[in-house]
Amino acid sequence: MIHQLTISSFVILPLLAFVISLLLPKSKESGFSMVAFGMISLQLLTVTGYIGYWMLSGSIPIDIPELELYNNGDYRFLLDLYFDSIAAVYLWVGSFITFLITRYSRFYMHLESGYKRFFNTLLFFYLAYSLTVLAGNFETLFFGWEMLGISSFLLIAFYRDRYLPVRNAVKVFSIYRIGDIGIILAMWASHHLWHENIAFISFLDEKLVAHHLVAHEGTGLFIAVCLLVAAAAKSAQLPFSSWLPRAMEGPTPSSAIFYGSLSVHFGVFLLLRTYPFWEHQLIARILIGLTGLITALIAYPIARVQSTIKTQIAYASIAQIGIMFIEVALGLETLVLIHFAGNAFLRTYQLLVSPSVVAYMIRDKFYHFKPREITLEDTFPKKLEYSLYMLSLKEWNLDHFFNKWVFGPVKRVGRKLDFLTPRNLMFIFLPVYAFGLLLYFNQEYIPMEVLPYMPALFGFLGMLLVFKAFSERTYPRLALMLVMANHFWIALAVSFNERFDYAQTQIYLSGVIVAGVIGYWALNSLRKNEPNHFDLNKYHGHVYEYPKLALVFLIAALGVMGFPITPTFVGVDLLFSHIHEDQYFLAAFDAISFVFGGIALIRIYARLFLGPHVKNYHPTALKTS
């Protein structure tokens, strides 16, 4: 009982502090900063004491089935908490660093207009961090994983009246969401491998894991590769490395806690948590090790040529995390945990003192100038040296790679659907969707040769609507409706697989409908008030005059994208469990739709409500920093 109460409190305490901080008035700086600092202090003491007690009790892994959200007999959505040595190290390091950052931020952020908003987001992040670290199954981990993504977006865009922080926040969120494809597909394949919602503690049973992998080696490797994609995106490994320096646009404390010490190490955490599953898959270990090795070799020279101290620290941290990937692949769990703790504390310290270090080095260079020393690169042939320098200076064109090969094709496909306008969307969508429903209820009339392709076809149509929403620049309400329409197509596509209880479809669509209606009302209200500043071609900054409307739309957008505040979050996993093992195209179409739908919604929010205000009579920050 003491284990269950204590481990549960590690999630309940941050949640309670977050709710209290929301209720406190904005003018009470000391009030909500003290709530945050007091909660983190209590959490640190509790974590430290419990880890000592747990170690004296034998350090036995503990699994706690905490809360059952849904159970229909065949499928069970369970919030599960799990405590072991990995969770202990991550939880203690996270608590201690958050304690330091909270103390530092109380004074550093003093008199900032977004002081309360910063502490609200900081507590929300710590709640997400604790939930992810203590996750006992994929469903709980994805719960915290999604919360980390949105708290990251909010912290980077903290200076929401500036162009660059908002633009970089959208970019980072987009990369995070692309990495989420890996988690979603890993969860889908895991359902078919285990035929249940597997708990992480079950991975410790070597015979159980070996028994399932012997007959399904391909599925096991697929899950391992998907986990690698998700881990690489979260920890800024190649080819996702370029987002980490862009994330440094937020306040220095958030850069330290998020991108220097804690959040950036969650890719390593994911690999450590699932290591017993893929440790005997040689190909997976080679891929993980190569990813870390190549990243470390490329990130090191990039760090050497950066002109700002934050980007130097960012790429230095990327290189160290690359080495951690190698250590995980070699099975050196204890070394990885020590390396994580050391790197987290070092990067936190470096980021917090970076302004002072810059000032000191400028003075030191002025008074004690020394000619540049001969380095290793100077021994290379000049053509090679200059080529490496230019590639490193351009960060190996990673931004260009994503714009050209990931976002570019999606935009081009979306622009082919420009005939979809608010006026004719219903004239096209409703008849086609009605025809799809007619086919669903009369499947006996569909040729047997055609029927197996219907789910993938409807999933593909839904994905096209999301691509159009992603590329839309004229009609914000149309983009929202397209994302909503995609959810209906996904529900119809999966329904063709088997006739399951309609209540499951209702769980999935209920959150989409309610949140979508609220979001549409918010956009419609904004359009009535600002008819001349209501498009997606630039950032309008309407949060300056309509902060409550901006908050309402943000919450509605989160609901439509399946964030864990509506039944849709459970419904997404529920519907994926009904996608058959051999339906790779349907699973891919649905996962891509889920990811790009979220990006499209966040872009609507960012372009309408964030950035420099479109009206000249409000103070406007410079576009670049």
Share in β-strands: under 5%
State Rg: 25 Å
Q: From the helix content, strand content and strand pairing, which structural class follows?
A: mainly alpha
| General shape | globular
- The succession of helices and strands, N to C, reads HHEEHHHHHHHHHHHHHHHHHHHHH
What does the main sheet amount to? Answer: 2 strands, antiparallel
Average residue-wise pLDDT: 85
Spatial gap, N to C terminus: 53 Å
Helix percent reads: over 70%
Domain tally: 2
Low-confidence stretches are none
Number of helices in the DSSP assignment: 23
Number of strands: 2
Describe how the helices and strands are arranged.
Elements: H1 2-23, H2 29-56, E1 62-71, E2 76-83, H3 85-108, H4 115-133, H5 138-156, H6 163-194, H7 206-215, H8 217-234, H9 243-246, H10 252-261, H11 266-278, H12 282-304, H13 309-329, H14 333-367, H15 382-393, H16 398-415, H17 422-441, H18 454-471, H19 476-495, H20 502-529, H21 547-560, H22 568-576, H23 584-609
Antiparallel strand pairs: 1-2
Helix pairs in contact: 1-2, 1-4, 2-3, 2-4, 3-4, 3-10, 3-14, 4-5, 5-6, 6-8, 6-23, 7-8, 8-11, 8-12, 10-14, 11-13, 12-13, 12-15, 13-14, 16-18, 17-19, 18-19, 18-23, 19-20, 19-23, 20-21, 20-22, 21-23
Descriptive notes:
- With 625 residues, the protein is mainly α.
- The chain contains 23 helices and 2 strands.
- A two-stranded antiparallel sheet has the order 1-2.
- Helix 3 runs parallel beside helix 14 (333-367), helix 4 packs antiparallel against helix 5 and helix 18 (454-471) packs antiparallel against helix 19.
